[in-house]
Amino acid sequence: MAALEEKTSQQDTMTFIRSIQDTYQKADSFYNAVQDTSVRTRTRPINQSLGIFNSLTIFGGGFISLGVLGFLIFLWTGRGTDGGLTATPLWRWIVLGQYIVPTITLSSVLLRLANASQAAVCTSLGASILLEKNGVPLSQVAEVSVLRGINDGPLRLVWLLVTSPRRAAASQTALMMLLLVGSIAIQFSSTMLVSDLQLSRLVQNPTEQLMGIDQNDQNFDALSQFNVFASKPNIMLFGEVPSNMTAAPNSLGLSDTGIVKRIFLPMTPDSQLNLRRFDGVAFVMNSRFACMRPVLKDPVVKVTTTGSFVRFFGNGTNQDISYSLRMGGEIDHASTMKNAGIDFPDDCPGGTCLPARYNCSLPFTINTSNRFSSSMCMPGLLQAVRRLSEDWTMAKGPVASFSLVYLMTRINRTTGEWGDTGSTWRLDDDDLEPSNEWISYRTADRGNMDFTICYEQLTIDRATVSMSTNTDIVPPALAFNATSKDVQTLPLRQQLGAANDSQPRNGLFQVDSYSNVSRTLTTSFIAVQLTLNSFAFTKNLTIVTSGGKGTTTLPLHNDYTSVFTDIMGTVDCPALALQAMMTMLTSSMLADMLPKLDQQQTAATVYSVSESTPVRFTGLIAVTVVVIFNLMCVALITTLFLLRTRYSYPGNVWQAVAHLSMSDETQSLLEESGEATDGAVSKRLKNNDPCVKVDRSLTAGGFCVAVVIYHTPGGMLIVEDTPETPCIRANRGRLRQLLSTGVDIRWDKKAARIEESDDKVTVFFEDGTLASGDLLVGADGTFSAGRFQQSSLSAPTSWEKPTKRLLEAYPSLVLAGETTLSGAEMEEQLRLGHSAYIAFGPDYTLFSGINRVHDDGKSADFYWVMAQNDATVGQPDHWVMTATKGDKFERAKRNAQALKPEFRVTIEKGGVQGMKSAKMWYDASITKVPPVNRVVLIGDAAHPMTPARGEGAIFAIKDAVQLGKVIASSDRTDLISLRTALDEYQKDILEKGYESILLGRDTLPKARTGAERPKAWGHEMRPLAELKPLPIKIAE
Ligand SMILES: Cc1cc2nc3c(=O)[nH]c(=O)nc-3n(C[C@H](O)[C@H](O)[C@H](O)COP(=O)(O)OP(=O)(O)OC[C@H]3O[C@@H](n4cnc5c(N)ncnc54)[C@H](O)[C@@H]3O)c2cc1C
């Protein structure tokens, strides 16, 4: 009673219901609380809530962003560690084709496009969340609402949020600001990415080139060169076939380089720059230098004056000097080789084919630095002629019959120490000391004089080779240091393998394959040139190989001297020094001859090139962070939108406008703002700018779900939830649960008898308990016990009859059933009437309506009631009294055949199992009532009516509201006046109820014929031309 009284403070039925709605705000809206017939938000599939375009933008944009990011990572890392040699063709095409900058620009454009589209959609989503969850000031609602439909990005929304007089949720503002920051940052993606580019060496694709490898007409005169030693060496790159030999002297003093194969490309030094790979025919220099302790017979050194041929070396200039050292004697090749433990060449028994007598100049120094000056004495060159005439090959041993012989000397004395002109120094074997490949004559007064003898084998071949390098080879230049006046020879010595072990080889190609070795007249000619023409074919040739002075017939370019001296000074290995010198000579000769070779062959070459390549990762990381950051913002906003909104369909302008134009808060504003500026509207709302949200409204905003449609033979009729015809479709169980909140209800009590007295009324229940009170409200429905019991008190005629006899059977057989539908079938039923419809058959009506939406939001319980004209219903022998479920189903199914298939679905899907036990409806013609004592009847107990007009519950609620008012406004201490008020109330509701009962008896027949527009849910129906499309989509 207390609860009821409280409720009666409300003005009318709808207000009463809304008061319940207020009470249950926490349980979402009243609609959510009672309407299991509404399709809830979570049932909205993504493509429906977001829309196809927005879904595509968000998910497609995400894919594009991640795809572009992946592509950028591929560009940044695709180079690999080998200069892009093994990079994918796409990577090479982009970078080597110089498309990297356009590609980055295009990628950035794609990223920006994807982000801009996503940001725009997310702005709509953010505006939707704001409007539905947070609310915005009324002055901004138009703009925010329109932002849901059309927008250019988050800037405007962030501006609205920041400048809003009412703070929106901080998290919402922060999220939109993050989206804005991310959207701005992504605009700089191209700049960030391009900043990572740097020029770097990349390996180009192979190209084929024609290269001269032979002389067609064997016009060797054109190739002849003289004294190449005098010219600055022309250093070429070469590859070296790996060999295990070292030139370290053995215990017998033999220092043997073994056969070293150095492969020179048929390319000038300039065209070798940046070469990474070569496949073709090349020149092979085979060389072997073996140095050992010489056995000399009668070695003498003589101080002489000489003529104008005396030259001064060491600072690059020549000038006559008047002082010279000469040495002479004979080499004992047999003993020399024997001491070194090597065999004579087969074609040179006893070493007799090799030149023995020597007579050469010696170098000397003019300062007192004690620096060794070295020179080479070549006692004879004739055996080198064999290189022209014979098809010779490298010997198995260190010495061959065609070996050139170098007698190398070192002395560490200055001119003053050698004595006067004409003095002769006979070297004495007693002063002899062996040291590695050297012998050293040591005297107290004349100092040291060292000798070693070196045998050279050298051939030139051609071979098909494949050579490569992973990095660009820097040509080992010989740089002159102006300060130290030295030539920096280390890089070249490293290339030539004549540096310390700690210094790695460089300037070399790796030889990957080596085959088809051949020799031509040209290669033989080159080999001979290396000897005869270079050395001027002079017997007892003296070559000064260090920075000393002396006479020579072969002036050396300072570069050769520097390299030779440095090798001797660092590794003290004459074999390597000689080999280095001959390699430089071969390189210089080839470099000069190559352009003159007119017989060409194709070779495949691969060069490196400097191209802009992603080298740094700073920009890529920054862009990756921005893209991931943006995608997270998009994902977060989309998730919030899906979880938190129900009514917004971003991108739909009409809906955005409709929410504005139909909203309670905005409607009046819109009417007044026809010619007003936004500023004027804001000004007007300055002091009263309420927070506005989009929510389902009884009058506007949401889509209407309380609709009943009559599909009559004459056309469709409709009553729907509009401001003029407000109606609510409530699930009976949930409504009862709501109404019973806070009310002390004793369940499972069945009233059996009622006793009234002047001071109280008592109800006796079937379980033997009883309850007494001041007033009894009989709200026990059509089969009311209260109505029956009243007869015992005042005995009015109408109340004496037992309940059922008082009731009048509605002349229709009632069949009812239930079923569960989902997907397209559910959608179809809702389209026919959301939430109920009545279809007219030949002699029946079929009511069908949704009862409860399942938690998955995709299926729901439906129920149907078929009322078929039948005057005999209620008679004890009527077939339905003994009919099984199957019998009833068959009847309903058979009847329904007259309807279109869509109207038959609920019956046929429910089947026999879905059949319910309904048989008939009752109403009653209750016109008179006894005076109220302590029992008052309301609802169906007072005026039982059929559901034909759907008004029974409305009447029951109205009765309750009215009763509450009567009690609240009465003086409860004055029993007589209270009884009078209740009595008047009772008569009033019976009268109104009876009126509805009478109308209800004709409603359906009249609707069928179209004679009269029926009422339903308390409102007159209006014609409906066509079914509205549903604002929801359930079918997958
Ligand atoms: C198919 C169908 C469709 C309908 N559709 C609509 C519609 O769309 N709109 C509308 O407004 N109305 C509709 N109605 C009518 C509406 O359901 C009733 O008018 C309404 O329920 C009456 O409410 P009430 O409280 O008076 O009685 P009831 O709702 O019948 O409640 C009576 C309660 O009293 C209990 N009771 C009965 N006897 C005893 C006893 N001896 N002791 C203890 N408790 C007892 C019952 O168990 C029941 O809980 C429909 C009715 C039907 C059958």
Can you offer a commentary on this structure?
Mean pLDDT is 82; it is low at 1-14, 18-33, 39-43, 307-319, 697-704 and 788-802. A seven-stranded mixed β-sheet has the order 30-33-32-31-23-24-38, sandwiched between helices. Strands 4-6-7-16-19 form a five-stranded mixed β-barrel. It has a four-stranded antiparallel β-sheet with strand order 10-9-8-13, with no helix packed on it. The two termini are 49 Å apart. With 1036 residues, it is of the alpha+beta class. The chain is built from 32 helices and 38 strands. 36% of the residues lie in helices and 23% in strands. 42% of the residues are buried. The protein is rod-shaped. Helix 31 (952-969) packs antiparallel against helix 32 (975-1009). A hairpin with a 4-residue loop joins strand 17 (479-481) and strand 18 (486-488). Bound molecules: flavin-adenine dinucleotide. The site of flavin-adenine dinucleotide has 20 residues, from helix 31. Flavin-adenine dinucleotide is lined by residues 749-751, 779-783, 785, 865, 939-941, 947, 950-954, 956. Its cofactor is FAD. InterPro entries: FAD-bd (IPR002938), FAD/NAD-bd_sf (IPR036188).
